[in-house]
Amino acid sequence: MEYLNIPENSITKTGISQLGLGTMRMPANKDEGIRAIHTALDAGINFINTGDFYDAGLSEILVGEALQGRKRDDAFVSVKFGGMLKADGGMYGIDSRPELIETYLTYSLKRLGLDYIDLYQPCRINPHVPVEDTIGAISRLVEKGFVRTIGISEVDATTLRSANATHPISLVEVTYSLMGRKIEDELLPTARELGIGVVGFGVLLSGMIGGSNPNSKLDHIKHMVSGSTLENFNQNLSLSDALEEIAKEKGATLSQLAIAWVMSQGKDIMALVGSRTPEQVQNALKAVDLTLIKEDLERIEKIIPKENAKSDYMPAMNLAENGLFKW
To answer: Which residues form a coiled coil (predicted)?
Structure first.
């Protein structure tokens, strides 16, 4: 297993895997979900990502049960907070007010069965709440020993600088895939300048890259993206056959190629995958051993040049446009 290469003083635990497991969409079968997490941990994937609003807290409970009986250092647990859910499961707001953060954390610790969280981060930064206030509140939880390191999600370069000036940011979680490379313009160079690692999620665009029925997946998420992004998705997905050819030559699947591409962009970048079953975890793990040489990367670049990889999946601006930032 490859590990993130970022400054030692930004992470209290060494050896964080370059492939991480996201638990936003764990299966209804709890035992299968626990087996998926165990498969990941046993294979060296020690970065486990969850959120207090994932399945209304059930994801945290599942992760907590999966960690029972294991050494605490076996897993680096990343938790997002601030997403507000309706009774029907839909989101209706983002709340990152500083005075509420400790109570969010308290519930997460209880559900996870942990004494501290390795990395704690707001799921989005609310434009109505200064980022310095939000990060400052989390830093006080670091001082109390309930949080080890601080992360941040889906921000621009300016916000990342402001957050890091308030308290050192260890990881920035952001959408990144071979079909969506917006972060390469400003955010990624800024993160590297500041010594902050990048957690790339959406590497398979919710199964659209390498999935069995990408068009149905596209219908499922079209309400979360802009019209231009939807058009860009369609254009790039039409090029999947050419990417499949490269994958076959490498003895891999298209999804494995896409995961390997993200990890090949730098040792400071993690590919976060949402594998739900042991089989899916094992499939994703094959990407770790997939080496993309310079010629491979050049061929991929010719198929989908950076300037055409403009997809912005689930951007924060859409949340604002939909009125989800209330406080």
So the answer is: none
With a CB cutoff of 8 Å and minimum separation 6, the contacts of 271 are 18, 19, 20, 200, 203, 259, 262, 263, 287
| DSSP 8-state class, residue 310 | B
Q: Which of 27-36, 259-268, 304-313 has the lowest mean pLDDT?
A: 304-313
CB-based contacts of 89, cutoff 8 Å, min separation 6 = 56
**Residue showing tokens 């916000």:** 159
Give the C-alpha separation, 306 to 263, whole Å.
16
How far apart CA 117 and CA 103 sit, in angstroms, is: 14
Measure the CA–CA gap between 303 and 299, rounded to whole angstroms: 6
Looking at residue 153, which CATH number applies to its domain? 3.20.20.100
The boundaries of the domain holding residue 27 are: 8-202+263-290+316-321
Across 15-19, 135-139, 168-172, least confident range? 15-19
87 in any annotated domain: yes
CB 256 within 8 A of CB 284: yes
pLDDT tens string 71-83: 999 999 999 999 9
Residue 240 included in any domain: no
Largest CA distance in the chain: 54
- Residue-wise pLDDT for 4-20, tens only, equals 988 765 665 558 999 99
The reported pTM is: 0.90
The position carrying tokens 């370069």 is 157
- Facing residues of 153 across strands? 173
- For residue 16, give the nearest of 135, 122, 159, 148 by alpha carbon: 148
Whole-angstrom distance, CA of residue 105 vs CA of residue 101: 6
User: Does residue 299 sit within a domain?
Assistant: no
**Buried b or exposed e, range 95-116, using 16+ CB within 10 angstroms:** bbebeebeebbeebbebbebeb
Catalytic residue among 54, 104, 120, 313: 54
176 catalytically annotated: no
